Amino acid sequence: MENTVKSLKKNIEKWQDINAEPYIQVQDVTKSYGELVTLKEISLSVYKGELFSLLGRSGCGKTTLLRILAGFEKPTSGKVLIDGIDMTNWPAYKRPVNMMFQSYALFPHMTVAQNIAFGLKQDGLSKHVIDERVKESLALVQLSGYEERKPDRLSGGQRQRVALARSLAKRPKLLLLDEPMAALDKKLREQTQFELVNIQEKVGITFIVVTHDQEEAMTMSTRMAIMDEGKIRQVGVPHDVYEFPNSKYVAEFIGTVNLFEGVVAEQELDHVLVESQEIDCPCYAAHTGALPVGSKVTLAIRPEKIMVSTMKPAYPRNWTIGVIKEIAYLGDISIYYVQLESGKMVRATLPNLLRLSERNFTWEDKVYLFWRAENSVVLTA
To answer: Distance between the two ends of the chain, CA-based, in angstroms?
Structure first.
């Protein structure tokens, strides 16, 4: 019995454990500049060792929140606690926090080693300790042997890793990263995402990353917060935020989604029946919340959850009919834009297991779209 309990505890993440203490706590933080309010009573808990992402459109307040955590801005109201200590009014230089800027902010006249050592010298560490920290940091980001190079002799990816090494060398309790991949091309960005995750796991430092790139946040994060207009819309692991959005805003912001307006026609313990004028038949959707009959709701269905066929489904629920208007061939997948009889355009994504020319449907073909009840999410917000 004791071994079973221990095994269960190992499978519980820190944010699921009611006894776990958050490492970073943002408590009811508001930030205003005169009449402009950029953060509105933000509360957030981040646990030790997390790689946590703040995701949102430009102007949503994510960088302002990062700067408050760093100590570059003071909140108008609310508190910031790091490792249990209230640091709301602590200046940036006294906080156990380091920040990696979007521009990397490397000194062009200094070598790689000098850039990394700069902050350590400011802290008054001995030459021996500085040399060891520089060596360890370069090895961590796989740049050993680059000590004497200047930033203008490095690629964008190498400069990014030098900036990361400089931040890690100070061994902060919290590392803040502001759009760390923004200056990299797509292929290098994808490669660097996994490198960053591996480095973070090795050093065990808590990372908070600001990004507007959904794919980046989904790939790297233990959890992420979706921000909009100075508020946090949803916090969760990437899978839950994608599969179970809590609002139309989150559903539309993360990935691509088809939305159908309707009303609840039937309520059961594990599902609801939704009728929509945009779809040809009523739809079952897995749902455990209480929704009175007649409630207005929105059905959200991801394109990859929709199947396409020229044969009419035998089941009397969860299908509709339309005409293929556009096909986007992307190599590994194809995107089908299907116009329903209601006039609504629906997007379905299919893997290219066969060559496109071998598919038994094409432009202007009439097709049936169908999906499982558990693949449609009922949204009320």
So the answer is: 43
Give me the pLDDT at residue 7, please.
46
Residue 96 CB neighbour total at 10 angstroms:
14
Supply the DSSP string of 94-124, one letter for each residue: GSSEEEE-TT----TTS-HHHHHHHHHHHTT
pLDDT tens for 329-371 read: 888 899 999 999 999 999 999 988 777 666 778 899 999 999 9
Question: How far is it between the farthest Cα atoms of the chain?
Answer: 76
List pLDDT tens digits, range 53-77.
Answer: 999 998 899 999 999 999 999 999 9
Q: Do residues 165 and 157 make contact, with C-beta atoms less than 8 angstroms apart?
A: no
Task: Give the 3-state secondary structure percentages of the chain, helix then strand then coil, rounded to 5.
Answer: 30, 35, 40
259-264 long-range Cβ contacts below 8 angstroms, 24+ apart: 259/298, 259/299, 259/300, 259/379, 260/298, 260/299, 260/301, 260/344, 261/296, 261/298, 262/296, 262/297, 262/298, 262/299, 263/294, 263/295, 263/296, 263/297, 264/291, 264/292, 264/293, 264/294, 264/295, 264/297
* Residues 64, 227: Cα–Cα separation, whole Å: 12
Domain of residue 228, residue span: 20-248
pTM of the model: 0.86
- Do 211 and 275 share a domain, yes or no? no
CATH number (domain holding residue 312): 2.40.50.100
What is the Cα–Cα distance from 112 to 154, expressed in whole angstroms? 9
CATH number of the domain that 138 lies in? 3.40.50.300
pLDDT digits (tens, 9 = 90+) for 129-176: 999 989 988 888 888 898 899 988 988 888 888 888 888 888 889 999
